[in-house]
Amino acid sequence: MQVELIAITRYLRGEGTPEELLEHAGRVCYRSEGQGDPGRFLRARVREGHESIVEHAAATFEISGISRACSHQLVRHRLASYSQESQRYVSMEEPEWALPTAIGDDPDAIAIWEQFAEQVKETYRAFRELGVRKEDARFALPNAAATRIVVTMNFRQLRHFFQVRISRHAQWEIRQVAAAMLEAVYPHAPAVFGDLREGFSANFPELFVLE
Ligand SMILES: Cc1cc2nc3c(=O)[nH]c(=O)nc-3n(C[C@H](O)[C@H](O)[C@H](O)COP(=O)(O)OP(=O)(O)OC[C@H]3O[C@@H](n4cnc5c(N)ncnc54)[C@H](O)[C@@H]3O)c2cc1C
Fold first, then answer.
1. What pLDDT shows up at residue 160?
2. How far apart are CA 199 and CA 99, in angstroms?
3. 132 and 156 assigned to the same domain
4. Top mutation candidate among 164, 166, 174, 177 for ligand 1, by most atoms within 8 Å of CB
5. Which of 99, 171, 192, 208: CA 20 to 30 A from 63?
6. What pLDDT score does 210 carry?
7. Residue with CA closest to ligand 1 atom 23
8. What is the average pLDDT across 133-160?
9. Cα(114) to centroid(ligand 1), Å
10. For ligand 1, which residues put their CB under 6 angstroms from it?
């Protein structure tokens, strides 16, 4: 699995950081420009629920090597934009797979998997040779088919996404994706995401690589 932050909002004033933009948006509400510590101001607004301020910045991630099972969970989040590799237009004759360790690390399970995966590839190729279009041949593919997707969320939605998808109730793969997204965006907006990173990295250190 790879998770890369590929774009983030740039403010056209000051240093250009997204948090400068968010602080400005918040200060407009109170006519309080230039008053007080920016980080403290933003943390207070988020804490009190004045979260529309943090909708003004967004981040874009490229995520690859996750399973279709995982991407299906991801795209359930409606307040976001997605561009995903198409199984209608891209040939899956040489598919990549994303497997859980419950299968990948178990010699008996992996032996069963390899037999099945070979059968999947043969079936897909046989369909294609019969003239079945890619959009129909893909019906032979399992949830383990790896995918690539570009995702954009604003900071408010990112906070929501992290809360529900890094939670212990979420599934292991999307938890890893969400934690990697949080790690990538946090240095660009520590006042917006610091509380979540602190809490989640303390509770689930296995999901975070801390300095
Ligand atoms: C642990 C877990 C288990 C799950 N299990 C299942 C399952 O078994 N089956 C299944 O189908 N789904 C399941 N889901 C998916 C879940 O129900 C949501 O569809 C998904 O997490 C998207 O999040 P969201 O609804 O908060 O919406 P998002 O699209 O992320 O929207 C963000 C917020 O905007 C608001 N919002 C957006 N759209 C609306 C709307 N139409 N009406 C009112 N408010 C709205 C809500 O406040 C929402 O929280 C599961 C999710 C989790 C985290």
1. 98
2. 28
3. no
4. 164
5. 192
6. 53
7. 77
8. 98
9. 34
10. 76-79, 160, 164, 169-170
Short-list 58, 64, 61, 133, CA closest to 92: 133
Task: Assess whether 6 and 78 both reside in one domain.
Answer: yes
- Would you call 165 a catalytic residue per the annotation? yes
Strand partners, 153: 59
Q: How many domains does the chain have?
A: 2
Neighbour order of strands in the sheet with 58-67: 2-8, 58-67, 146-154, 81-84
Q: Are residues 107 and 197 in the same domain?
A: no
Nearest CA to ligand 1 atom 34: 79
Terminal-residue alpha carbon distance, the chain: 21
Residue by residue, DSSP assigns 25-71 as HHHHHHT-TT-S-HHHHHHHHHHHT-GGGGGG-EEEEEEEEEEHHHH
Residue 97: predicted pLDDT? 98
